[in-house]
TrEMBL record:
The keyword Zinc does not apply. The keyword Zinc-finger does not apply. One of its GO terms (molecular function) is transferase activity. It comes from Lachnellula cervina. PANTHER family: KDEL LYS-ASP-GLU-LEU CONTAINING - RELATED (PTHR12203), PROTEIN O-GLUCOSYLTRANSFERASE 1 (PTHR12203:SF35). This is Beta-1,2-xylosyltransferase 1.
Length: 889
């Protein structure tokens, strides 16, 4: 028995019992364990969204248990039973304390770590294995550490520990390479990106390597002196401390973690007990070999850390979060105010003179020629918005930095090459027509746009425009280049201001435009690619395009959020109040949200994506913030592809209290299991696989006093019994490789009965998500007097006209706010206690009314008219003298 037990050394180091002839066999076992450990580690990492949080916290406990039992084993050989008894009882006391520490630390971490909504498939066999593998890994870790410490007993002067460490490193590397090799052999299509590491991953890897290996080396070194549980316990404690110390605990979210503070306090108290035991042991120089200086240092460190922790969390402990107002009430009243303010400044002008003056004072230049015609057009159609077209201004400003001839050349470049997925419109002689080489499947879209333009084409100068026929946006310009373009654009615009005699549009403008793409035969074959555009479909677009427009030092440029299963609190807090979205504009920015990389089809794997990093003039129906396409009103809504049929309308109170959603898996092209992160899939999964027993932390009115709100833990079933959920995919899986289609068909229910679009109006709560691009349903939803929940990452032409929380309810892309939103509007329990029906009805009504005023087809025409007047000036060679001036009185 004692021969198996190398821990004899701790009890009496003078009588080392360790015999060296067992070492070679033992070394072989150790290497095998390390090999298995690495294999398991990689399995877990591949399905990290299915892993349990904090399993490794149990390591100190397993180690101390092992030590306690082996102490017992060896002490039984001692003749002095009294000594043996004290040793045994102190070892058991020690193991018990470490146990308390471990359990409370684990509880504090797992209750305070919110999960993301990234899907861990319930039907996949592999993902169920992940927690099992994690525990297997934990036992292997225990074995490896015990083994290492055995070897380390030789002392670091001898070459054995170093040699063994070196071998283990080789074994781990070998295990990884074998797995990677097998993976590439099986999936050759992943070869290219597997070897392409971007700088963020390299810096993460370097950090992990340096940190990991120095940690391991110090650990082995320490274990030559100490029992292994000591450094491991200290390391665990420090990392849990850092975790709790640095997590973002606002008043509202992730949760007002009082229970976390209590649990972590228990953990730290038991740690105090552990340190005390070590100190006692070091005094008596028995049983545990922590020397005096070391333990004194630990005590001081412990006291210091505790004081710091209490200081930081004191407010949470002393003032339990009681709020006088619900965040949503606050956001709604704020939204009303913001909207009133915006509306006031958007329509200050009452006459053409005032409108010209207002334009001049906003942009520092005179309005474009024919501005009077536009003004007449807009006022005749009762436009409420005359002055605020900030979207047009910001979309077009950088193009002032580019020579008109160059802009025309770039337009021609796209229109000549059908490969670039651009369709052309020629505006000439007061009308608008399609260029000959528009792909038949997308003709309807260009014809729709053309029918908008025809309404006012007589006032437009001759020009050709290139329209994006894909749903996905196209132009991602790096930050520095964009800043430069904007600066030069501002300067170029100022030159216009210096002109004294303003002219109307050139009449010979059509001569300036090339005719190559107007010929019946295209100048280039459809296969001719453009060197300025890339074929980037079905690949992650986030790093290469999505965030290149972000300012340096943006979190999305510096970090990569690899743990898909973890909710990123720091990514939402800038634009959130509690779990709720508070700043719609900011929530679209990708720069502070590195985790979005895995949470949207467009970032994960766009179906048809041909982006450019140069500023090409391409008109798109929507764009992700950070992209530089020119946004125009979508013909989808203009030509009534989907509409709200008012004969099917219903009063809000008559509607059924249900969340209703139907749709396809069309957000992105599913490859390599990435459908698990797409927003539509996450939504359907979240809504349908909800476990009624899950505890939600909801903010509810205080019962007793009736004033203020506080958090309470409520089972999810309570939300489900108040609001019905009818959410499913329709048809069958689309846009996926065979393997992913099959996986989705297993995981989701696809409702094959057809639903008339007008069915939607029967339900109170309508959720609206992006597809491959913007959602075409949003406008009809808004008209329907149902409450619209909007989770759009693609932004359209009307964003500044609408106000989140006044006209619709904004939803975070992560969907972590889903249940809290339902609880607020739908209430809890059968009777819908705490429901806010009035508020829901008010937002639904306001959205409907406001849409009927500013999102009409007339408003789309007015927007497009103004956009093309501005664009007509930018592409005119004489743009520095073009402007509208009022006729002298
Ligand atoms: C410790 O050793 C004694 C005597 O050998 C044995 O009776 C006892 O069961 C052991 N305790 C544990 C926890 O292994
Ligand atoms: C443009 O000119 C007007 C009048 O000449 C002047 O008031 C305004 O400040 C100028 N704006 C810029 C941006 O130079
Ligand atoms: C516009 O009219 C002129 C003269 O009538 C003609 O030469 C030109 O081809 C027309 N352009 C288009 C695009 O129809
Ligand atoms: C929302 O974010 C935008 C962009 O960062 C910022 O300009 C604006 O002031 C914010 N609005 C509020 C109400 O905080
Ligand atoms: C499928 O959709 C129809 C129409 O909305 C609905 O009546 C039916 O209950 C759905 N089926 C299931 C199993 O949810």
């Amino acid at each position: 028995m004692a021969q198996r037990n190398p821990y004899y050394r701790y009890l009496d180091s003078k009588q080392a019992y360790y015999t060296s002839q067992h070492k070679p066999i033992f070394g072989g076992w150790l290497m095998a364990c390390v090999f298995c450990r690495v294999v398991i580690l990689r399995l877990v990492m591949l399905n990290v969204e299915c892993s349990l949080t904090g399993v490794e916290i149990f390591l100190p406990f397993l180690l101390s248990l092992y030590e306690a039992t082996s102490d017992n084993g060896s002490s039984s050989q001692q003749s002095n039973t009294a000594v043996s008894k004290t040793v045994r009882s102190s070892a058991m006391r020690y193991a018990l304390l470490v146990g308390v520490f471990t359990v409370s630390a684990f509880a504090s971490v797992s209750t305070s770590t919110p999960r993301s909504t990234y899907i861990c498939p319930v039907t996949s066999y592999g993902s169920k294995l992940v927690p099992v593998s994690q525990f297997l890994g934990l036992f292997l870790d225990t074995g490896i550490i015990i083994g290492l410490s055995t070897v380390a007993q030789d002392g670091f002067e001898s070459s054995r520990p170093k040699l063994l460490l070196g071998r283990l490193a080789f074994i781990s590397a070998g295990a990884l390479s074998i797995q990677a090799g097998l993976f590439i052999l099986k999936n050759p299509e992943h070869m290219i990106w597997s070897f392409h590491l971007d700088s963020r991953i390299i810096s993460d890897l370097l950090f992990a390597t340096v940190f990991g290996s120095s940690f391991l080396a110090s650990l082995v070194y320490l274990m030559s002196e100490l029992r292994p549980s000591i450094p491991i316990t200290v390391a665990t404690c420090v990392s849990i401390y850092t975790y709790h110390f640095s997590t973002h605990t606002t008043e509202f979210w992730p949760s007002p973690s009082r229970s976390t503070v209590v649990l972590s306090s228990i953990a730290f108290l038991s740690m105090a007990g552990i340190v005390r035991l070590w100190r006692e042991a070091s005094r008596s120089q028995r049983s545990m070999s922590l020397n005096g200086t070391c333990s004194r240092f630990l005590v001081i460190l412990f006291v210091f850390m505790s004081v710091l922790f209490l200081a930081k969390k004191s407010s949470l402990i002393l003032h339990p979060s009681k709020l006088s107002k619900h965040p949503i009430d606050y956001l709604m009243s704020n939204a009303q105010h913001t909207s009133d303010q915006w509306r006031k400044q958007a329509a200050t002008s009452q006459s053409l003179e005032q409108a010209v003056y207002e334009y001049q004072s906003r942009y520092g230049i005179p309005p474009p020629p024919n501005f009077d015609k536009w003004y007449e057009y807009a006022t005749a159609r009762g436009s409420l918005i005359i002055d605020d077209f900030e979207q047009i201004n910001s979309d077009l400003l950088p193009f002032w930095a580019i020579e008109p001839a160059k802009i025309r050349e770039m337009t021609a470049h796209m229109l000549e090459r059908t490969w670039t997925d651009a369709g052309g419109l020629r505006i000439a002689n007061g009308t608008s027509q399609l260029t000959p080489h528009v792909v038949p499947t997308h003709r309807w879209s260009l014809e729709g746009t053309s029918s908008i333009i025809k309404k006012f084409a007589q006032w437009l100068p001759d020009m050709d425009i290139a329209m994006n026929i894909n749903d996905e946006c196209r132009v991602a310009v790096p930050w520095r280049a964009m800043e430069d373009l904007k600066d030069r654009g501002t300067v170029a615009r100022r030159q216009l201001n210096e002109s004294k005699h303003f002219q109307p549009f050139s009449t010979n403008a059509h001569q300036l435009w090339p005719n190559t793409y107007m010929q019946a035969e295209p100048p280039y074959s459809p296969q001719t690619i453009s060197e300025y555009f890339a074929e980037a479909s079905i690949a992650s677009s986030f790093t290469k395009y999505g965030v290149i427009g972000c300012p340096p030092k943006s979190p999305s440029l510096r970090t990569s959020w690899w743990n898909k299963g973890l909710f990123c609190a720091d990514c939402t807090s800038p634009h959130a109040l509690g779990p709720f979205l508070s700043n719609w504009t900011l929530s679209g920015s990708l720069c502070h949200q590195p985790d979005l990389k895995n949470l949207h089809g467009f970032h994960l794997s766009p179906s048809s994506f041909k982006p450019t990093t140069s500023l090409f003039p391409i008109f798109s129906q929507s764009k992700m913030p950070g992209f530089s396409d020119i946004v125009f009103p979508s013909p989808w809504n203009y030509v009534d592809k989907v509409t709200f049929d008012s004969s099917k309308s219903m009063a809000f109170s008559e509607k059924e209290k249900s969340v209703f959603w139907r749709g396809g898996t069309s957000e992105g092209y599913a490859a390599a299991d990435n459908w698990e992160g797409m927003q539509r899939q996450r939504f359907v999964h979240l809504a349908n696989y909800a476990q009624g027993s899950t505890k939600l932390n909801l903010l509810l009115p205080n019962n007793a006093q009736g004033t203020g709100y506080s958090y309470r833990s409520i089972p999810l079933s309570s939300v489900l019994s108040a609001t019905n959920i009818d959410v499913s995919f329709v048809g069958g899986p689309v846009r996926c490789y065979d393997k992913e289609c099959a996986a989705q068909a297993r995981e989701f229910y696809f409702n094959t009965s057809t639903v008339d679009f007008q069915e939607h109006w029967k339900y109170k709560f309508l959720f609206d998500f992006d597809g491959a691009g913007f959602s075409g349903r949003f406008l009809p939803f808004l008209e329907s007097s149902s409450l619209v929940f909007r989770a759009a990452s693609f932004r359209q032409w009307f964003e500044e006209r609408l106000t989140a929380w006044k006209d619709y309810v904004p939803v975070d892309t992560r969907l972590h706010d889903f249940w809290s939103l339902l609880a607020y509007f739908g209430g809890l329990g059968k009777n819908g206690e705490y429901a806010h029906e009035k508020e829901a009805e008010r937002i639904a009504g306001q959205g409907r009314e406001w849409a009927a005023k500013v999102l009409r087809k007339e408003d789309m025409e007015i927007y497009m008219f103004r956009l093309l007047l501005e664009w007509g000036r930018i592409v005119d060679d004489r743009r520095n003298e073009l402007g509208f001036v009022l006729p002298p009185k």
